[in-house]
Design goal:
heterodimer, A: five-stranded antiparallel beta sheet, 4 helices, 14 strands, elongated, B: three-stranded antiparallel beta sheet, 5 strands
């Protein structure tokens, strides 16, 4: 295995699970530490944009056939944003507090939701099983006072929602 | 389903228009394989690329019924004109 190879986690040890990693999580090798240890940046499929930099054993991951495009690899190496010291600070995945089809209530009144007719107290369902950044897709479909069905599936910030029992 | 569905549309005055289909394309996001697509979306999100744009990549849309480009400043999206036969192959892969 080499730097910039794409790998999959095939053994879920306790130390990885504590960082919210999961079996078959995908990542990219950013540094070969020793003959046995690799530094891998894993990407969270359950929250697009989230990542965790984790030290793993070679035997705990499997190399994938797919490869990163060469021009992207060059860009990563030249990028000031990809500062290894800064990136290494984040060592675990964030956890999405909702699952698909969970019933949730909107806790706030905001223009970005009100323009779709969704107001504080509205009840909806989590429409998809992953988050994009800090937002999830929520289905606020309902029947209005004229008995007409309306549907509105909108992105809502996770912090603006509360799971209902 | 008519053979013309998706190919043409008729307005209220009876005028016929050919639908122009486009594929939404974001820089460096492949359509396949799914694994590489997900990894690229995550890497690009890490570099600050818009997640809405990368999620639209690969979608087939009607040119007159799609989000306006650019979606935001420094947007890396463009539209690729495609034929209806490409669209129908995706919709009806088993059709002759």
């Amino acid at each position: 295995m080499r730097e910039n190879d794409i790998v999959t986690l095939i053994k879920l040890k306790k130390e990885y699970a504590e960082k919210n990693l999961y079996l078959n999580a995908h990542g990219v090798i950013i540094k070969i530490l020793t003959d046995d240890k690799l530094l891998v940046i894993f990407f969270n499929d359950k929250m697009v944009g989230d990542y965790a930099v984790v030290e793993v054993c070679r035997t705990d991951v499997k190399k994938c056939d797919e490869k990163l495009p060469l021009d992207l690899v060059k860009e990563i190496k030249q990028s000031k944003k990809f500062n290894l010291d800064k990136v290494e600070q984040k060592k675990e995945f964030k956890r999405v507090p909702f699952n698909e089809c969970d019933v949730v209530e909107l806790l706030v009144e905001k223009e970005e939701y009100a323009k779709y007719g969704v107001h504080k107290g509205a009840v909806g369902y989590i429409a998809i099983d992953y988050a994009s950044g800090d937002t999830v897709l929520v289905d606020f479909s309902d029947i209005d006072t004229d008995s007409d069905f309306y549907t509105d599936c909108i992105s809502v910030k996770i912090e603006d929602l509360k799971k209902m029992k | 389903m008519s053979v013309f569905d998706g190919l043409i549309r008729v307005d209220e005055a009876g005028n016929i228009y050919y639908n122009q289909w486009i594929e939404w394309d974001h820089l460096m996001v492949p359509n396949k394989p799914e694994l590489l697509r997900n990894i690229m979306r995550n890497i690009l999100a890490f570099f600050g690329h818009c997640k809405s744009c990368t999620s639209l990549d690969g979608c087939y849309l009607l040119d007159d019924n799609r989000p306006k480009q650019p979606l935001h400043e420094n947007c890396d999206c463009e539209k690729l004109e495609i034929s209806f036969s490409q669209v129908s192959k995706k919709l009806l892969p088993n059709a002759q």
